[in-house]
Write a structure and sequence with these properties.
94 residues; two-stranded parallel sheet; 3 helices; single chain
Length: 94
Amino acid sequence: MLSTARALPAIADAVGDALTLLVDGGVRSGLDVVRMLALGAKGVLLGRAWAYALAAQGGAGVTRLLEIFEAEMRVAMALTGVTRVADIDRRILA
């Protein structure tokens, strides 16, 4: 079975702009969010991550999770020279 990241580029190429492609699965960090966007997703769902944060610390846990994801995304974007989420694409992948 293919991982989400391996399957995503072919799916993104096949649907183009005809659908809004959302991805879920294998997303554990802000870096994963950036990676999925670069591979062609238009949006990234957080699946279990937010549920675990909610179970651990309630709403404050979800808030903290989103802060951590944001910080990780900012680092990944800075390291790849991207200043806007809309500019994330396959060119940033090594």
